[in-house]
Design goal:
This protein has 472 residues and is of the alpha/beta class. 46% of the residues lie in helices and 14% in strands.
Length: 472
């Protein structure tokens, strides 16, 4: 953060207050929703490989208990601070609410640069952090369920689960204490690409709305749309890939080392392989290099997807952005000043707080899988295949015509776990998009889609509190 006075949590509160004006709830109740319920700041020592002792700073914030357990990732980053963890926990509350995942928001952070530690040191840090959370009951399948974020992945999640299970012998639902685990440890298929796929489903639904597209001067559907993606990490890569597979044209890709563009379109997989081989996306055959990476954000396109860091588009560069739609795949890629600029220019910003909720949606499916102790599709797959085979053979017999092998395979196929996960995610993103747009149409004074999303979230959390009987 270049501006030391900038508070990420303050920006979230600002968006919240802006939206709260369009709701009918009591001021006291609104204050309860926007506040963080519990902030746990901890320090603990670890012994480095060289024998020195280091004190580690770490956090876990539970923003809301209107539904339990709380849910949110753990990030390992040198920039971690209490303000950031509180902001991300608050966004998790609103994100879960919008996509109807029955969790309260939480977030965790450990202030380290994971690149500077050996796997053994990282394991010690992760396990010690987990035992600190256990001591204060800040983790458990029914209280608080962490997940991966920047700097963490399946490996760290399996360390967390192992530590939790060891300290809770015989707890049958112990695997549900954390999500984003390897498949062999109770993880769910489809988790890795979930956020990118959710971004695709959300933007596709927006592009299928004739009134929204008409206002932007675009045709409906994603086919043929020119797309620019910033960030080729897990979320950016999968977002670009799903758009490409749906017939969109990826005309530019940006990474921190530089950016490339081509009017003919770029093949995402080939660029990814080129970067693996050369260490950079620059000088990709048949593409042009941008002078600097941020220039890609200002190129003309239909859809711009910032999928890297927060605050990449601010009051300074927002006036030069020429995209018609901006899909926030990263957390907080736009500052509030950028939002103002885009509202005036009539550019549609599809907000992060629901658009990148694919990860938490599929985490919810993983948690349910852990509590039910059965893989999705295991019970019904063969039944469905046998039934479809019977229906198909009856139709062929009655019509005297044969179906092609390709079609036969499609019709007969019973759902695997990954098919059901994709289907649940698609349903979730379509419903959330429609609900936000419906709210926006009903209250035309709402200035942008982000405010409409906050209004949806506030109404749902407030209703949950009201129904708990905590507030009259």
């Amino acid at each position: 953060m270049s501006n030391t006075n900038y508070s990420f949590f303050g920006a979230v509160e600002k968006s919240f207050d802006k939206a709260a004006g369009y709701t009918k709830w009591d001021k006291g109740l609104l204050n309860q929703i926007r506040a963080c319920n519990a902030v746990y700041q901890m320090r603990f020592p670890i012994k480095r490989d060289d024998g020195s002792i280091e004190v580690i700073e770490a956090y876990r914030v539970q923003h809301s208990h209107h539904k339990t357990p709380c849910k949110g990732g753990i990030r390992f980053a040198a920039e971690v601070n209490q303000d950031e963890v509180m902001a991300l926990a608050a966004l998790m509350t609103y994100k879960c609410t919008i996509v109807d995942v029955p969790f309260g928001g939480a977030k965790g952070g450990i202030k380290i640069d994971p690149k500077k530690y050996s796997p053994f040191e990282l394991e010690k840090i992760t396990r010690r952090y987990t035992s600190e959370l256990i001591k204060k009951k800040f983790i458990g399948p029914g209280t608080d369920v962490p997940a991966p974020d920047y700097g963490t992945g399946e490996r760290e999640m399996s360390w967390i689960m192992d530590t939790y299970s060891a300290m809770h012998p015989g707890e049958i639902d112990a695997a549900g204490c954390v999500t984003g685990k390897p498949i062999s440890q109770g993880g769910v298929r489809g988790r890795r690409e979930a956020t990118g796929l959710g971004v695709f489903f959300g933007l596709r639904e927006v592009c299928n709305m004739p009134d929204v597209m008409g206002k932007l001067g675009l045709t409906t559907g994603v086919e043929g749309k020119k797309v620019i993606v910033q960030g080729l990490g897990n979320v950016g890569y999968h977002s670009a890939k799903f758009f490409q597979d749906a017939g969109s044209k990826i005309i530019a890709l940006a990474e921190y080392e530089g950016a490339i563009w081509s009017d003919k379109g770029l093949d995402v997989d080939q660029v990814f392989q080129h970067r693996k081989k050369t260490g950079s996306i620059l000088n990709f055959p048949g593409a042009n290099n941008f002078a600097k990476s941020s220039d890609a954000l200002e190129m003309e396109c239909d859809i711009l997807i910032p999928a890297a860091l927060e605050n990449v588009i601010d009051g300074e560069n927002a006036p030069r952005v020429k995209a018609k739609i901006i899909g926030e795949a990263a957390n907080g890629p736009l500052t509030p000043e950028a939002d103002e600029v885009f509202t005036q220019k009539g550019i549609l910003v599809v907000p992060d707080m629901y658009l990148n909720a694919g990860g938490v949606t599929v985490s919810y499916f993983e948690w349910l899988k852990n509590l039910s102790h059965v893989r999705y599709g295991r019970l019904e797959k063969r039944f469905t295949e046998n039934l479809n085979t019977r229906i198909l053979s009856q139709m062929e017999e009655l019509s005297g015509k044969k179906v092609s092998d390709n079609e036969r395979e499609l019709i007969m196929h019973g759902p695997d776990e990954v098919d059901l996960v994709y289907s649940g995610l698609e349903e979730t993103m379509i419903n959330a998009t429609r609900e936000i747009m419906k709210t926006w149409r009903e209250i035309p004074e709402i200035p942008d889609m982000r405010t409409a999303a906050y209004v949806v979230a506030i109404n749902k959390v407030a209703t949950a509190y009201a129904e708990l009987g905590i507030f009259p």
